[in-house]
Automatic annotation (TrEMBL):
Domain CMP/dCMP-type deaminase: 7-130
Family note: In the C-terminal section; belongs to the HTP reductase family. In the N-terminal section; belongs to the cytidine and deoxycytidylate deaminase family.
Biological classification of the source: Bacteria, Pseudomonadati, Pseudomonadota, Alphaproteobacteria, Sphingomonadales
Documented EC number(s): 3.5.4.26, 1.1.1.193
Cofactor annotation: Zn(2+)
Keyword annotations from UniProtKB, A to Z: Hydrolase, Metal-binding, Multifunctional enzyme, NADP, Oxidoreductase, Riboflavin biosynthesis, Zinc
Record-linked InterPro entries: CMP_dCMP_dom (IPR002125), Cytidine_deaminase-like (IPR016193), DHFR-like_dom_sf (IPR024072), Eubact_RibD (IPR004794), RibDG_C (IPR002734), Riboflavin_Biosynth_HTPR (IPR050765)
Name of the molecule in the record: Riboflavin biosynthesis protein RibD
Cofactor stoichiometry and binding remark: Binds 1 zinc ion.
CDD domains xref list: Riboflavin_deaminase-reductase
Species the sequence originates in: Novosphingobium aquae
Molecular function GO terms recorded: 5-amino-6-(5-phosphoribosylamino)uracil reductase activity; diaminohydroxyphosphoribosylaminopyrimidine deaminase activity
Reactions listed under catalytic activity: 2,5-diamino-6-hydroxy-4-(5-phosphoribosylamino)-pyrimidine + H2O + H(+) = 5-amino-6-(5-phospho-D-ribosylamino)uracil + NH4(+); 5-amino-6-(5-phospho-D-ribitylamino)uracil + NADP(+) = 5-amino-6-(5-phospho-D-ribosylamino)uracil + NADPH + H(+)
Length: 329
């Protein structure tokens, strides 16, 4: 086997992470994992976690590779599971008997049934194992890692904003701030969520459907949740405060939509992991709901948020931010 190439390892792990995106969120309650079998620089097998969590990514990739797996390298985003299940064989055991020469893993599994046990089992079979903590792999597992480490879903706050932080046009004008391309992108993001939450004000004012209206993936519409102290309407579920989002489990991915009050409630509670801000190229004067603290100049000087992506969507712009973890004192 040729010596390891760190840059090639990173690229293959990143490719596996992109593959894992195909299983989000349909793999729930399991994480969506990506796996790629590489032999002589060529992909001979690939897989991602399928609907309902089975089969696992490693099983799919190894079955596709067949005999070509012997002497090859498996790149997998998460440590192969080490626990037995009536639904299938432990992936660590499957990998250990595969004839692979090497396994490269992008993230340890925090599940106590596997944590740190999958890799030694593979090594005991004479297969070289490298754990290369990879940012792309961890990002692809954000929902699962949040549930395991924090006991809650990964939370994305999605808002449409004007350049000066307004969330709506004046009464009597169009309800839309952004154009069709940006709104289609929102639907694509919804399709990757287990649940969407809005506040009571948004429900009363807009009666939102919160579904996915893109051809071919309409069946990926998430659950609808409401932030309220009262009873939710038929077809909705509710929590009384942001701190109750553990009730949304086993959901791994929650998107918060709605107005300024709900957004501020989640931000104040420190429960927002990612911001999706769809910025319209307009300013809106007057007395309308607004969040000036989320304008681009303010966030640029923030120590709490890291700007990780920006892309044009028609005449609008999507800015994506990730929360910067607080350093321990």
């Amino acid at each position: 086997m040729p010596p390891a190439d760190p840059s090639a390892d990173r690229r293959w792990l990143e490719a596996a992470a992109r593959l894992a995106a195909r299983g989000v969120p349909l793999s729930r309650p399991n994480p969506s994992v990506g796996a790629i079998v590489v032999r002589g620089g060529m992909v001979v097998g690939r897989g991602w976690t399928r609907i309902g969590g089975r089969p696992h990514a490693e099983a799919v990739a190894l079955e596709q590779a067949g005999e070509l797996a012997r002497g090859a390298t498996l790149y997998v985003t998460l440590e192969p599971c080490a626990h037995t299940s009536p639904r299938g064989r432990a992936c660590a055991d499957l990998v250990a008997t595969s004839g692979l020469a090497r396994v490269v893993v992008g993230c340890l599994d925090p599940d106590p049934r596997t944590a740190g046990q999958g890799l030694p089992r593979i090594e005991e079979a004479g297969i070289a194992v490298d754990l290369l903590r990879n940012r792309a792999c961890e990002a692809s597992l954000a929902g699962y890692l949040s549930v395991r480490r924090l006991g809650r879903p990964h939370v994305t706050l999605k808002l449409a904003l004007s350049q000066d932080g307004a969330l709506a046009r004046p009464p009597g004008e169009s309800q839309w701030l952004t154009g069709e391309i940006a709104r289609a992108h929102v639907h694509a993001m919804r399709s990757r969520m287990d649940a969407i939450l809005v506040g009571g004000g948004t429900l009363r004012a807009d009666n939102p459907r919160l579904d996915v209206r893109l051809a071919g993936i309409e069946d990926r519409s998430p659950e609808r949740w409401l932030l309220t102290h009262g009873e939710p309407p038929a077809g909705w579920k509710s929590i009384a405060s942001p701190n109750e989002i553990s009730a949304i489990l086993p959901a791994q991915y929650l998107m918060v939509e709605g107005g300024a009050q709900t957004a501020r409630a989640f931000l104040a509670a420190g429960l927002v992991d990612r911001l999706l801000l769809y910025r319209a190229p307009i300013t809106i004067p007057g007395d309308v709901p607004r969040l000036p603290e989320l304008t681009a100049p303010i966030l640029a000087g923030s120590a709490a948020w890291q700007h990780i992506d920006s892309r044009p969507l028609g005449s609008d712009t999507l800015d994506v931010y990730e929360a910067i973890p607080c350093s321990p004192e």
